[in-house]
């Protein structure tokens, strides 16, 4: 199945219009592999015919399916383990002191894919039950992909998926085997909720998230889109909260909305904070 330049441009334009993600020349090799199953399922013999259907607008749902197929949903539990250790050792102890009065934390996993990141966060809290006894931990996972969000809500993973990032002890403790695979146990699922959310749109209401993880999402956006998303994320955060990006991402040269946390390398905090928030940051 050959992918012509014109077909590549149309598909790249569709993906960017719907999600902001760019299908650069270096990533266009994915088109053939990503769409092969969809073409078989829909009985469409060639990519050129698929493009014709899309351009004519005869099947609006097909465009959504194409976009979903082109999205990169690569993820696994405790991906790049270091960031989760940083949260556990640096951010969470400080937040625990600052939020002692309300005993409530709100965390947003933006671009959560099929949910492994959100469930990894839930495990951080569940594995320290004494410290978080009596707290309300609200973890929201969002993604632009409806199919990914459905899978995240189910919390069911294959043997291969559940073993990526989890040791045997964690796997047995937090997942139960079923006919469909391994499902996150109910106490873990109660800590996490999921919804479809496009980062190009206003952030989830009501905001005031204490921690936002937006990892390995901004890599695929141009600098203008990144700046817009940083602004949206910043507007949804508590003034003394933290933002975590992927290993290959940074706020430097991208936005003035955030700055690196001098004490916790790899975390970012909102700038232009009010006096009360500045005091809280020193807590």
From TrEMBL:
Coiled coil: none annotated. PANTHER family: CHEMOTAXIS PROTEIN METHYLTRANSFERASE, CHEMOTAXIS PROTEIN METHYLTRANSFERASE 1. CDD domains: AdoMet_MTases. Residues 1-259 form the CheR-type methyltransferase domain. This is Protein-glutamate O-methyltransferase CheR. It comes from Sphingomonas cremea. One of its GO terms (molecular function) is S-adenosylmethionine-dependent methyltransferase activity. InterPro entries: Bact_Chemotaxis_MeTrfase, CheR_C, CheR_MeTrfase, SAM-dependent_MTases_sf.
């Amino acid at each position: 199945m050959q992918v012509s330049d014109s077909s590549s441009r149309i598909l790249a334009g569709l993906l960017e219009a719907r999600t902001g993600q760019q299908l650069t020349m270096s990533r266009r090799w994915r088109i053939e592999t990503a769409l092969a199953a969809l073409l078989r399922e829909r009985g469409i013999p060639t990519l050129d015919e698929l493009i014709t259907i899309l351009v004519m607008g005869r099947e609006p749902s097909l465009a959504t399916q194409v976009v979903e197929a082109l999205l990169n949903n690569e993820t696994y539990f405790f991906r790049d383990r270091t960031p989760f250790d940083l949260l556990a050792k640096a951010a969470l102890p400080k937040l625990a002191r600052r939020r002692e009065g309300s005993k409530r934390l709100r965390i947003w996993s933006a671009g959560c894919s099929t949910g492994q990141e959100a469930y990894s966060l839930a495990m951080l809290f569940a594995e320290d039950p004494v410290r978080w006894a009596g707290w309300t931990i609200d973890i929201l996972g969002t993604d632009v992909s409806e199919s990914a969000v459905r899978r995240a809500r189910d919390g069911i993973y294959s043997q291969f998926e559940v073993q990526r990032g989890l040791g045997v002890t964690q796997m047995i403790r937090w997942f139960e085997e079923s006919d469909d695979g391994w499902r996150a146990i109910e106490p873990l699922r109660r800590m996490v909720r999921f919804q479809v959310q496009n980062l190009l749109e206003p952030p989830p209401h009501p905001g005031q998230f204490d921690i936002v993880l937006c990892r390995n999402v901004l890599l695929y956006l141009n600098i203008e889109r990144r700046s817009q998303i940083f602004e949206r994320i910043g507007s949804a955060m508590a003034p003394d909260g933290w933002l975590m990006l992927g290993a290959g991402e940074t706020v430097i040269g991208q936005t003035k909305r955030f700055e690196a946390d001098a004490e916790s390398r790899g975390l970012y905090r909102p700038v232009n904070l009010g006096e009360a928030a500045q005091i809280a940051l020193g807590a």
